[in-house]
Amino acid sequence: MDTEKIKSIKSKSAFICDMDGVIYHGHKLLDGAKEFVDWLNRENKHFLFLTNSSERSPRELREKLLRLGIDVAEKHFMTSAIATAIFLASQCPGGRAFVIGGNGLIQALYDAGFSMDETAPDYVIVGETRNYNYENIETAIRLVLNGAKLIGTNPDMTGPSERGIVPACRALIAPIELATGKNAYYIGKPNPLIMRHSLKKLNCRREETIIIGDRMDTDIIAGIESEIETVLVLSGITSQSDLPNFPYQPHYILNNAGEIAQ
Question: Which domain holds residue 154?
Answer without folding.
Answer: 92-186
